[in-house]
Design goal:
Radius of gyration: 14 Å
Shape: globular
CATH class: Mainly Beta
Helix content: under 10%
Distance between the termini: 15 Å
CATH architecture: Sandwich
Structural class: mainly beta
CATH superfamily: Jelly Rolls
CATH topology: Jelly Rolls
Order of helices and strands: EEEEEEEEEEE
Number of strands: 11
Number of domains: 1
């Protein structure tokens, strides 16, 4: 499969909430954005692996997992900004800021607070290599 470059900005529905459109025939970022929250993404899809840079403005977001991606993972490197896991953490909130890395399953679903506008670099990897 040939590599496909992509670049997109978030789009807003009638309710004012945003999402990132399907980026390539095989790759999407399953992120639901809060009212007025913005996201820009640019990267390259290698078929089962994608590498991309993303800007997300402050607000409450939701990562919506897909069951068909069970076993796949995303590694998210925080270049700037601050994120917090809204649900799913026991005790203290799980936060990430410049220099931190998060890893989560592509089928996972969770709330995400973007506390300060964030610049991220991410890699998605397939369930099987």
């Amino acid at each position: 499969m040939a590599a496909i470059r992509f670049k997109a900005a978030s789009r807003f529905g009638a309710d004012g909430c945003g999402h990132v459109p399907q980026l390539t025939p095989n790759f999407a970022i399953n992120l639901r954005l809060d009212r007025g929250q913005r996201c820009n993404v640019a990267g390259i899809d290698f078929g089962e692996t994608a590498v991309y840079a993303m800007y997300v403005s402050a607000g409450e977001s939701r990562v919506v997992g897909r069951p068909d991606l069970e076993g796949g993972v995303s590694l998210v490197f925080v270049m700037d900004g601050e994120l917090a896991l809204v649900e799913g953490s026991a005790g203290r909130p799980v936060c990430a800021e410049r220099g931190d890395v998060w890893m989560f399953g592509r089928s996972a679903e969770f709330g995400l607070a973007v506390i300060a506008d964030a610049q991220l670099v991410a890699v998605t990897l397939p369930a099987r290599c």
